[in-house]
Amino acid sequence: MVRLTDVEKAILRGDNGRLQQKALENIISYAEALGAQELCVVTKATLGLGAQPYLNNIQSDDYNQIFSRVYMCTDEVLDISHNKFSAECFCMTCTENCDTEDYEEVGLTKEYFDKNRRFLEVARAAGVSMASTCTPYLLGWLPLKGEHFVTTESSNAMFCNSLLGACGNPDGVEAAAWSAICGRTPKWGLHCAENRYASHEFKIECPAQSAIDWDVIGYTIGRLLPAGGIPVITGDFAYPTIAEVKQLFATIATTSGAVMCHILGMTPEGQTMTMATGGHGVKESFNVSTAEYQKSLTMLCDVTPGPVDFISLGCPHYTLEEIRDVANYISGKKIKSGVRLYLWTAYPIKEMARASGYLDVIEDAGGRIMTSSCPIMVGQSIMKQSRGVVLDGAKQAHYIRSMTDAAVYYGDKYRCIDAAISGKWDH
């Protein structure tokens, strides 16, 4: 039996409307299946909404019906736009399958673009804030220590658990939606302090001086981490910057199921080894050697040089600082004819790039700043008949191979820009 507060009993009675009532019914069933005896108050949520491809399984254009079947797991049609999400929970949209403004550039139809906008408008009317990014923490969505969150983005879960000290599990889209709607989630997993301790140590003995280094380190840690493990990173290195830790957490979550990582002396729950492990020590230690680093690079980047025509930067979405760095590097240069260069970010950051003059510099060179999505989310339509794909994010390089027959190359943003200018990848 799940213990409920008076507020939760009121939601369950239907005092806040049928949508929140149904969401809490589902959460209680979820908690019972997990063996959780009580619920947590959820203060932050991000959800993948809009016209997501998996919604096509429901043969309908009625978003209320689609949302009810897919997210709420019921044949009862719930009116989403006239039933508000929980006022206790600040919910924003995660990435979409289309740029906010330009559907043609990414190979999608106006019909799909309009459908996506229509579906998102229903969510907005229900109280969801529009952000459409995998890096909501760059836009002020910041659950802090003691807060509980839900998210459909693995790198975001890793970032918030690890760096901010907030508490969240890798729930599926359905459970995350229920939590955002009723403001509750089962108290289990990483919502409980005893489940947040490090189990495996990773000693850094390879380069750790740039975003690509931390990207590859994360990919390597995830490869080596036993199932169910939580890593603690140790070694003689400078603490990673926001851009570097963003890459680290994204790639650990790519090659493992982990959504928490301690960095000794840096992260709030990893100030000491005793704090990170709860005084229990680690089960096993791994060395992230230069050899392991190179092995990961070989897995991510094709070895044979060749022509390239599709360059994508920004996984996870770029910070304004990263866009500035690209603008400074590309200023006065030109992208080779027939080559497409995309930078991906959140649309508020694109507007800051416009105000800062970076957008003009990048567009003058032949590049584009895109928002709200990425090649993996858009799908095969964006790559068209590409011969060579170049990426600066290991997460993209890992997943995109199943979407294209093109050569896939991976490197830091400067090497990627050089490839965009020359039209070829050289080793």
From TrEMBL:
InterPro entries: Acnase/IPM_dHydase_lsu_aba_1/3, Aconitase_4Fe-4S_dom, PMDh-L-like_dom. SUPFAM superfamilies: Aconitase iron-sulfur domain. It comes from the Bacteria. Keywords: Iron, Lyase. Residues 3-418 form the Phosphomevalonate dehydratase large subunit-like domain. One of its GO terms (molecular function) is lyase activity. This is Predicted aconitase subunit 1. It comes from Desulfuromusa kysingii.
